[in-house]
Each structure stands twice: as structure tokens, then as C-alpha cells.
Please model this.
Amino acid sequence: MTIRVFAPAKINLTLHVTGQRPDGYHLLDSLVIFADAGDRLTFRPAADLSLTVTGPRAEGVPTDGRNLVLKAAALFEGEQGAAITLDKHLPAAAGIGGGSSDAAAALRGLSALWHQPLPDPDAVLSLGADVPVCLHPRAMRMRGVGEDILPGPVLPDRMGILLVNPGVEVSTPAVFKALSRKENPSMPHPPGWSSAAVMAHWLAEQRNDLEPPARRLAPVIREVLDAIAATEGCLLARMSGSGATCFGLYDSRAEAEAAARIIAPAAPHWWVQAASPYSTG
Ligand SMILES: C[C@](O)(CO)[C@H](O)COP(=O)(O)OP(=O)(O)OC[C@H]1O[C@@H](n2ccc(N)nc2=O)[C@H](O)[C@@H]1O
Ligand SMILES: Nc1ncnc2c1ncn2[C@@H]1O[C@H](COP(=O)(O)OP(=O)(O)OP(=O)(O)O)[C@@H](O)[C@H]1O
Model:
């Protein structure tokens, strides 16, 4: 028996930082979607627990207990075996929740393999603020420090996404620390949208409050945003999460693919990926 789980890239279409808790964690209000680009995990029965990391972005990803996949496994009752393979396609420490989405995929895969319920919500949150939302890979609104999640709006039938990462790892704590103003307005209720253009128009009124501090720490983010914004048909260019990955929105996947064909050859060291929204349905 082999269980396969896809771990899609997380995109913060908006990221409003609305306050800070006494323990230092920030209060967020974020519209999150997922892309059909991501990592692939397989789970097979085995006497011992093991993790093998393969794929084009495997380099530098820990294979020991620091990997969020093994941290997720440790939340289940008892010591059980599983042979886990993580086929890594997403850049790490990139603002698109690579590790968090892997952790969520591991929770789902091991819950099925071991016939156990998912760990309780506090334990899931202890893996990372993005892990609860990554357990529900569809349009979601995320609030609190990441634990308060509810279904988001229905996305337009057709839209294209471009993801671009300049290969600079940005530390999430460093970006939050560099944020000058912690109390910013929350996000209005996201309505549904009839098209990607109408959606982008609404999103343009919203913000990623982590973009200015991330740009100060990694000025190349400005170049990435400019490159995306200059492509034909780009409706919106913004940074995701704490960066440095930025996204572009387009009316169709074909337009996102055309934009990727312009940017990739001009910046061979950047990770450039066209995608569509991912949804488990
Ligand atoms: C920036 C986002 O990606 C937006 O979706 C998330 O808030 C971060 O999610 P994550 O990487 O899973 O975050 P964690 O691993 O839990 O936290 C990393 C660090 O980010 C900061 N952090 C994270 C989440 C939050 N709501 N407030 C914070 O201040 C803290 O310094 C924390 O030590
Ligand atoms: N499965 C994993 N994949 C990638 N990195 C991992 C994984 N498990 C642990 N890590 C470690 O976590 C660090 C952060 O990488 P990760 O991909 O989790 O960031 P991220 O979730 O993209 O950040 P953000 O919260 O900004 O979206 C990496 O530098 C790496 O050492």
C-alpha cells in the first residue's frame, strides 16, 4: 500500500498584520490560496520510520528530526514505522510554506497510513503558524497567529499564477522584527469575483504588510516585482508571506506561462513557475 499526498505551494494573496500578542507572535488577517505547483510525498508501511528527500530542490533540506515531516510524525501516538519519501520541488524559506505544506501533507498521509486521527489543533499549530491552513489547501481566510481559519471566497473559474523566487532565503522572524508598524487595518470581507481582473482590482486595495520590511532586507525583491509587473497581462504583482517569493496574477494559465517564458531566460538563477489555483474540491 502506498499513500501519495500533494503538498501545494501556499500563496498569501493578502497579509495584513493587525497586532502583536504579548508572546511576540503577530496577529494576521490573510487571504490564502494554493497553487498546483508543490512537493510530493509518499508513505509506505515499514518497520521503522525513515525519510528520504529527493527532487530538484532537495539540496539543503534536512533529512533528520529537524525536517517538519518528521516533526509531524512525532505528534502521533506510539512509535510506528513508515517509509516516507519527500520529492522536493518548492524552494525552502521562501514564503510559500514549503515546509509547512509538507508537514500538513505528512499529517494527512500518516493519519491514513496509521489509521489514527489528526493530532489536536494546538499540536498542529506548534509545527508552524502556516500548518493549520495548509491542512485545507483551498481558498481560506487565516487570522489569529494562523490558528483561526475559515473558508475563503470562491475563486474565478479562470486565472493564472506566476511564482518567482530570486534564490535569496529570507528569515521569517527577521522580517517580522523589521516590521515598523505592528497595528495595521484588517482586511475587509473578501467577496466572490467574476473574473481574475475583478479579483486583482479588489486585491490591489489590500496589502502584504511584510513586503516593505522584506524588501529592505532583500532588495532583489523589488527587481522580482518589477519583472513580474512588466509581463503582458499581469493583473497584480505582490510578495507572498515573508518572501522572497513573489506572485503575479493573470487572466489565464496560458498568460502566466508566457510570462514565465519571458522571465526565466532573463534570470537563470531565479525559480520561475507558472501555475493554476489548486483545490481539493
Ligand atoms: C508569514 C507567514 O508565512 C504568513 O502565512 C506565517 O505567518 C509564518 O508561518 P510559519 O513559517 O509556519 O511560522 P512559524 O514557523 O510558526 O514562525 C516563525 C517565526 O515567525 C514569527 N511569526 C510567525 C507567525 C506569526 N503569526 N507571528 C510571528 O511573529 C515568529 O518570530 C516565529 O518565530
Ligand atoms: N520539509 C521541509 N522542506 C523545506 N525546509 C524544511 C523542511 N523541514 C524543515 N525545513 C527547514 O525549515 C526552514 C524553512 O523552510 P520552509 O520551506 O519551511 O519555509 P517556509 O515555510 O517557506 O517559510 P514561510 O513561512 O515564510 O512560508 C528551511 O531553511 C529548512 O532548514
Summary: The first helix runs from residue 68 to 73. Residues 12, 15, 25-26, 28, 30, 100, 128-130, 145-146, 172-173, 176, 241-242 surround CDM (ligand 1) (CB under 6 Å).
